[in-house]
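Lab notebook: predicted structure, single chain.

Context: the supervisor wants predicted structures on file for every construct in the current expression panel, including those that have not yet been purified. This is the next one on the list. No modifications to the sequence; it matches the entry in the shared construct table.
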Amino acid sequence: MEEVKEERIVPVQNAGLVKRTFAGIVDLFVLVFVFLLVQGFAVFPIATSVAKDYDAKYETYIQYYKDANLALFDEESNQLNMIEKDNYLTNSENYYNVYCSSEFEGVHACSAYGKTFREVIEEDENLEKYVTFDDQDKIQMKDEYKDDEDAIASVNEYIYSKALNDLQNSELFLEPYKYVSRVQSYSMYISVAISLLLVYLLPTMISKKGQTIGKIVFKLAVTNQEGFEVKKSQVFVRFLAFSVINILLGLMSYMLVPLISFTFMIFSKRNNALHDYCAVTKVVDDKTSVIYKNREEFDKAMDKEENRFAEIDKSRADYYSSQEK
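Prediction complete. Output recorded below exactly as produced.
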């Protein structure tokens, strides 16, 4: 009868959950750092130089905020900030009664032309419970809310947000704003894609063990499901699956899909995430594992080791045999 060989166990140890989690955190920090560099010093400057109208459009929509007096622009940080809470009501009233007056229609950014502050407020059913107007068209809280500071603060904030909404929904404002948003969004998408390639694909394609920086730090490696050297095609599929599951679907599902993937990693025997299943790979502890190219190389190494031990046993047997004589 033909002798049945016992299947040899590949000498790899699955990566521990803690080490794999911390390796992922390191990679995430590297991704954010690379994204900030790529976006701030390469992609965004190039995008704004290619989009020749960007600076003019940006200045235009910022100027609408300034003229409407509904936001403050910090020149040093180049950011818009909300006005002081104490000015919510006064600036909103001025926005409707002065900035949005009919004589400026087509020039100022307002989607409520021809309506006074009183008309805008009285049309809003959410406010009729809280406010009223006196004979001089001055807004005031109704008697039951005059001393309610929380109600006063909420009403003022609501009125301010209403004024902002009328500014931001005007055609004059939307035209430059949409242009600027498109340029910023496209540059961000490009920067994310480049950062993913630099952090999660390039190192893994260069490394024979499919390692990212985080995996190198925590001495982890990627193999196929049998524990042999991972193929470049698997590395690429793993990268695509990771990007779709953790970035694209993650953003679309409010990080629900990555959470499901992490749950799989916790409860699966090999601590495999969803992208490991997609690419038919697993993560192993590189420090305690020996990774062979394929089963043929592994069998040759095992045969060589077994022959070496057989020769040692034979030499020992020959020695004791000679001693007995």
